[in-house]
Specification:
The chain is an alpha/beta fold. The protein folds into 3 domains: 66 residues; 170 residues, 3-Layer(aba) Sandwich (Rossmann fold); 181 residues, P-loop containing nucleotide triphosphate hydrolases (Rossmann fold), CATH 3.40.50. The chain has 22 helices and 22 strands. It is globular and about 85 Å long. The N and C termini lie far apart (58 Å).
Length: 564
């Protein structure tokens, strides 16, 4: 049977066939266009449709008897957010029998019921809903010990303390430290906690686990916190995680409120780790074509898009993914108030010169795809220059804003990215700072000290304090963000420090931005990425969306064109 279908979005024709004449037909297709290629995974030939190829590929189809295959691309799926077939009374009874020190809320019981039904899960509950608690009670109810917990270094001692708080001292917990001389590593504990940085190591061109115990011990459950760290399958940590989770009799929990940080393709490796990828798509190629608008460009596969997100959302929820937002389950939470405050810059001339430089760079590249491919290279470096100039130019206005805030008595959190302005402001106002190089215990101690001190301000780096600290919501409801990160998930994490259970007032979030800097382009880019993430998580229907480096570049070019 020889079939074909036309992919109108990617402007290509896909031919499928199993035939003794494969070689001859394949040769005919290759002659239609130099970009024609064979996908061995799917046993498909793909040929671009253009003025050169369209007549030739039509002739191949007609002369070889290809029949048109009808593709149903309708997105008429109604997403059901309810969690079905869960006996809450039974689940509550299981928890009551465990004598936990915390009583699970109803939505946490639902999460446990979902996990018990599905086995391996990706827990995508919103920041502040208690994914740690949900993971611990899942392990305890199923008696899945020994249990391996892999976390960022900044929160591994938080996990140990939280586990003891919930179940008491009868559960032995070992925290694996890099310096064995300093602290004896206990691999024989019921719960073993280790950080991502030390689970994998290089081995030739590949990677393996750093500690033999990770593979030798028969773990009944493995928990990976902040699992978006594993989205890159080529990284040492992701390869090590795949080795650790290889056994079929192990229960696997992946915890992350940001499974998708900017585009659907990021979830694929997480699905592999929980052995659910076949439930979503036949293989990676089908996944990226169906849900990422994937196509072969001049620089390889472009998977930056988002398509058929309703369908993807439903498949994920039906098979392995639980996701609830704070306000859908925590009705008592006050609404978040957000405001953008426009600031002047003192270095407008330097910013304009830097913008001219990056536009000139773009003119020298070979189109948009080249700019996209340069994301980690020169373009990113030049955008980094613009971002640094932005915060430097706003610093005087930010300082004035803080002086004015001093007139009131309320506490204020200040989040930024670059170390120098944070150091400067922290020193000037004699206020605490959480930045790089501070471990989890020290971070939490800084927070605890601030809660009881008269210090009005606390400064923090977005990456350093976005996770691993708690309790800020008990004493503060005000936050300003003076710099924008690349990913909306980073913003959600820092806002989640205040917008979580225990907050009595509406979190007041202000963005201090400038129209005369790259802040505008960064804001639009983040809004675009947020649209994609929200679409997948909520099941909102969008045709296709691409946002990222290219979006920033295009906006810079458009701004320059309008100025001329």
């Amino acid at each position: 049977m020889k079939t074909y279908y036309i992919d109108k979005i990617n402007k290509q024709v896909v031919l499928e066939f199993e035939d003794d004449k494969f070689n001859s037909i394949g040769s005919e297709i290759k002659k239609c266009d130099y970009g024609a290629r064979y996908n061995p995974e799917l046993e498909q030939w793909i040929c671009p449709i253009n003025e050169w190829s369209k007549d030739r590929i039509t002739l191949v189809i007609l002369t070889n008897g290809f029949k048109k295959r009808i593709i149903n691309d309708k997105e008429d799926i109604v997403v059901d957010y309810s969690i079905k077939d869960i006996d809450l009374a039974y689940i509550k009874g299981l928890c009551d029998a465990m004598n936990f020190t915390y009583t699970p809320r109803e939505y946490q019981l639902e999460a446990l019921g979902y996990a018990l039904n599905k086995g391996n899960i990706l827990n995508g509950d919103d920041v502040g809903l208690g994914k740690t608690f949900e993971a611990i009670i899942y392990a305890e109810v199923t008696k899945s010990f020994p249990c391996l917990v892999v976390v960022p270094a900044s929160v591994k001692y938080n996990w140990a303390e939280k586990w003891k708080e919930i179940v008491g001292d009868h559960r032995t917990i070992g925290v694996i430290d890099t310096e064995t001389k300093k602290r004896k590593n206990n691999w024989n504990a019921d719960v073993v906690i280790i950080n991502y940085d030390i689970i994998g190591k290089k081995q030739g061109r590949g990677a393996t686990v750093k500690h033999k115990e990770l593979l030798e011990i028969k773990w009944l459950m493995s928990i990976f916190d902040e699992a978006h760290f594993l989205k890159n399958k080529s990284s040492q940590r992701a390869r090590a995680a795949k080795m650790i989770t290889k056994r079929d009799d192990m229960i696997i929990q992946l915890l992350t409120g940001t499974a998708i940080m900017s585009k659907p393709v990021e979830i694929w490796n997480l699905l592999i780790l929980i052995k659910s990828e076949k439930k979503i798509a036949e293989d990676w190629y089908q996944f990226v074509r169906r849900y990422c608008n994937g196509y072969i460009g001049n620089f390889g596969w472009d998977t930056s898009g988002a398509t058929n997100v309703l369908e993807l959302n439903q498949k994920l929820r039906d098979n392995c993914y639980i996701r609830r937002e704070k306000r859908s389950v925590l009705k008592e939470l006050p609404d978040v108030i957000t405001e953008v405050i426009k600031l002047p810059v003192t270095n407008k001339r330097a910013i304009l010169k830097a913008e001219d430089n990056i536009i000139e760079f773009l003119r020298e590249t070979k189109g948009d795809e080249s700019a996209e491919a340069a994301e980690e290279a020169e373009a990113l470096v030049q955008l980094g220059v613009l971002r640094k100039l932005s915060i430097e130019g706003k610093l005087k206005a930010i300082d004035l804003y803080l002086k004015e805030w001093k007139q009131c008595e309320e506490k204020l959190l200040i989040f930024g990215l670059h170390r120098e302005p944070l150091d400067f402001l922290s020193e000037k106002y004699k206020s605490p700072l959480i930045a790089g190089g501070v471990n989890s215990k020290k971070k939490q101690q800084i927070v605890n000290d601030w809660k009881t001190s008269n210090d009005q301000f606390m400064f923090a780096n977005i990456q350093s304090a976005g996770t691993g600290v708690d309790g800020l919501q008990e004493i503060c409801s005000n936050m300003i963000i003076i710099e924008l990160p690349w990913r909306p998930s980073d913003l959600w994490q820092v806002i989640g420090r205040l917008d979580r259970s225990g907050q009595k007032f509406s979190p007041n979030i202000k963005y201090l931005l400038s129209d005369d800097s790259i802040d505008v382009e960064m804001w639009d880019m983040l809004s675009g990425k947020e649209e994609v993430i929200t679409a997948v998580n909520k099941g909102q229907n969008i045709k296709n969306s691409k946002h990222g480096m290219k979006a920033v570049m295009d906006k810079l070019k458009n701004k320059k064109n309008k100025a001329k």
